[in-house]
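Homework-ish question, so no full write-ups if that breaks the rules, but can someone show me the predicted structure for this set?
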Amino acid sequence: MVGTRPIRPDGVDKVTGRALYGSDIRLTGTLTGKVLRSPHAHARIRSIDVSRALALSGVKAVVTGKDLPQAAPDEVIDLGEGAGKVKYLRDNILATDKVLYEGHAVAAVAATSAAVADAALKLIAVDYEPLPAVTDVRKAMQPEAPSLHGTLTPDAAPNISGQVHHRLGDPEAGFAAADVIVENEFTTETVHQGYVEPHVATAMWNADGQLTIWDTTQGAFSVREQCAEILSHPVSQIRVVPTEIGGGFGGKINVYLEPVAALLSRQSGQPVKIAMTRAEVFRSSGPAPASWVRIKIGATRAGRITAAEAEFAFEAGAYPGDPCWVAAICVFAAYEIPNGRIDGFGVVLNKPSSAAYRAPGAPQVAFAAEQMVDELAERLNLDPIDFRLLNSAREGTVRIDGGAHGGIGSIECLEAARAHPHYHAPLGRRENPDVSPQPHPTTAQPPPQGGREVDPSPSTGEGDAVAGGVVPSAEASSSLRRGRGVANGFWVNAGMQSSCTISVSADGSVHLVEGSTDIGGTRAAIAMQAAEILGLEAHEVKPVVADTDSIGFTSLTGGSRTAFATGIAAIEAAREVVRQMKERAAQRWELDPEEVDFAKGVFTAATNPTRRLTFKELATQLEKTGGPITGSANVDPQGRGVAFATCIADVEVDIETGKVGVLRFTVVQDAGKAVHPSYVEGQMQGGAVQGIGWALSEEYVMDEKGHMLNPSFLDYRMPTALDVPMIDTVIVEVPNPGHPFGVRGVGEVPIVAPAAAIANALHRALGGVRLTRLPMNPRTVLEATGLIDR
Amino acid sequence: MIERATTRLHVETQINGENTDYLCGPEQSLLEVLRDVLGLTGTKEGCNDGNCGACSVLMGSRLVNACLVLGAEAEGQEIRTIEGLAGPDGLHPLQQAFLETAALQCGICTPGFLIAAEALLDRESEPSEERIRFWLAGNLCRCTGYDKIVRAVQLAAERLRQAGQLREMEVPT
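A: Not a homework solution, just the prediction itself:
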């Protein structure tokens, strides 16, 4: 069962348009909610007058930040991913004293129609005192920068909201022992997760205080906890019903609309639905942070890294909260480095409060570190994969952050990449792109000799992709240049809490109730793990994603945890079902339960194997043997396995226009055990293309006052089908000892390496020019090559 | 005092083969009519400004973004939405291919892709990979990286060609 490719249980609903997403929820008497947002990136709110809006016919409720309970200045809550101040959480929902970014919510209305709600927003008078804004992370770090909150951490500039510092061994001695040292600075821009479904929430606050929220979210329980804190309302009085979710990638964890809809519903006594426009999604949800990163690495002539140093600053956005701590774990995690130093800073500035986006923090530091690793390989005249293998982390490697790796698939991924035909093929598109290589069931074969592409016909110029300099394309006079690059990605993955309940039906199938919202096919992956234990077919396990009243606590769908942790809950619930079923068989056969065996869906008497009952046969007899059977499990597994992925990219750049195209792309990833290989490949391909977008075209373009200039899909420019090639995948399986089937999380790591792999490919295509800035759009390329001035 | 426009247009059209009429405001988009007036929520909204293709529908043989078409413009037209793709005999070959090849993850863009792909296969029975990518470039998918979507369209096209050949063989010569 595990390792096969059945059709997903929610598939038919989703290809016929019947699946219900956030905006498909329609309750009788629902009011339309709309949010008034700040036109300023930084301003003090002198006053808000809502009286004219309230007086408008058809307006049923108007709320501002004053309608939220007021938090003590230092009240702190922990929502599972680090503690935060309650005041910040509330102020981000509805601002009180200051607005801190363009699009910051200041008031909201509920009305009988969208037109009336729009008219009411225009009648709300907000008196702002504009303040100077800062939107660049390095400028915001300076002591004299406009301050958002006053001093946040002792002995630091006011806007520095978080710090992480690690040191291993003796970095100075390590660099002194190096024969070659490379160092450079890199920047990345703010990017958005770009889920196609905008945020939308529907809330009904009943007269008895029972609040129900229908929501498109990555974590129904997480929404419940956040709303309980923000509204000071008991969790027992809040039920969150997760709808189907149209993409999240980390961006649908934090609440934005939910508490506002709840307040409007309480005031109006009617259900209230609020949906963001696409521009609101860009300006007012939580994008991924921009960054500045400096990397320094030294190695011996023999190719061993002796020391490494990373210094970086991440935007937190308007409120504290940044991925520095995890970026510090990831930055050099793929390598064994005896001496090192890592210093990271989180910085508040006048942009939306940043949120998680697929391996938060890791792509930014990988873009920098993997280019410097590549640079070292080039200086040492070593193949880039050979150099990485020479220095690869392995089980027991102690990282600079102090943590040690367990069983990992770093070497296996690198070897599989080196053995892949792509690494040895002429530069360019795969010759027969309609035939996909089958997924690799096990680890890779030993690499062929050489390990790098050898130019088969130098006269065509399509040669020596990996180690080469300027590589002209087919026509020597053309302005097109091609290159190949590789890069490594690492991600920590998560475990966290999950619950599952499995009940047996009289026809021998089972119903599986889970609390994990399904973004990308986890219903299938979780049901298959239960089916494996129960000896059933995939379609005989019917999974349901339940609301918060109907299943035990389950952490959010994030951290690549769901197939791993909720999978373990499903396995344990299935084992409990088997235990109870054995009791029923024992009762029928007048044996002790220990005398009943179960394998491949069949119960047998240990003493007499001719006595046998299939799972189905026994299921039909539950009524007569003691009634229904339900197995439940609540887990908090600690054995998460970390993830590695290696990317190979072939690019073509036009040196006259600066336009970059991706010709061929391969992702090699350790999945531990691929439960449903098609959906593992899907994660790899989707993550790779998000990484390609981050690398080449996506960014928040801001003016000096902090206004976003491109808040639409047209101008933000995510990749279309025409912008990318087929994404080849190789699944490597180095089992995770912390999961019964060896499963590792797979969702996040594929986004980590693409930008670095493309940058390394461009470095070769451009004859040694280093691109140190994302996105690598025509302007970045032409400025780097000197064709235009910066 | 805001007075909402009281004028309602009476529109007669055909949706998924059924004669349909509705009242809509002159400013309402076809997307709003489909979802809010007629309850056909299979057509999705991702941007409401014509840049994501989640609301792709067919108007006659034209592939359009329903958010950029007025409800009034459907007068006298034949509209086809995702709800009309599967027939009484089961799923459309495109839907079946999307399921088998795992060409969807979250599924929010899937109805739009299916309608856009149907419009392509109505015109061309054997589109190349490049042609499929070009045709589907008006539809954004953030989950799949497009690889499996392109393959699903190729698979459905192949099956439709085979089915067409079988039908031709059944015709007595």
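Now go work out the reasoning yourself. Hint: The domain at 408-490+640-785 of chain A is CATH 3.30.365.10 (Aldehyde Oxidoreductase; domain 4).
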